[in-house]
Amino acid sequence: LVRENGLENCVVFPVGLFVDDRVLPLFKYTAVTTDTTASVVKDFSTDQPVMGRVLVPVFGFDRAMEAIGPVDRIGIIKIDVEGAELEVMRSMERVLREQQPIVIVEILPVYTESNVARLTRQLEIEQRLESLGYALYRVGKTQRGELGPMLLVERIGIHADVNQSDYVAVPRVLMADLEERSRQQISNAVCPDGMD
Fold it and tell me: Smallest Cα–Cα separation from 34: which of 73, 82, 94, 85?
């Protein structure tokens, strides 16, 4: 992965994050070796037949961090785990509460009200982020797939647009600080020091 993505100074830990340490089946929905739709959540893709499965080791976040070693602070977290976002967030709850990193996360659509399992998971993610002091923004995209403006959302809702699956969770304390800095910059531009 490091070589294919042209990355440097990276270490790949070939494990997943989950609420605890165990071995889980990774359900594959295509025959491609690097199936990007594979999930450790059983029946996550109810509209596609399982084409195979691979066993993968998963660890709780704190246990995985033991292998990495001391880290002073985590500033940004990226979660793209095809349905297991809830388990990753549960595993990282201490870090989310104490360090309040920005979280970039893909949450795939629920599609319909009848998809109760996905809807339940999505609602718990929303509640968990809210209880940890986060605001959720949907990353806007143009029809050509280019980035657009971010939109603050109270709820993700039920939709079927995979182009609307990317979110940024921002600590509310950071939002207030950014808003205050913005107000100060506007105030300084309108009324520079010594010009009151």
Answer: 82
How far apart CA 28 and CA 49 sit, in angstroms, is 9
For residue 83, give the nearest of 165, 163, 154 by alpha carbon. 165
Find, among 131, 180, 179, 138, the residue nearest to 156 by Cα. 138
CA dihedral 93, 95, 97, 102 (to 10 degrees): -110
* Secondary structure (3-state) at 34: coil
pLDDT in tens, 176-187: 776 666 566 556
Task: Tell how far CA 17 is from the center of its chain.
Answer: 12
User: Model-level pTM?
Assistant: 0.84
Tokens, residue 43: 């029946």
Could you give the CA distance from residue 159 to residue 84 in angstroms, rounded to a whole number? 19
Give yes or no for a contact between 155 and 110, defined as CB atoms under 8 angstroms apart: no
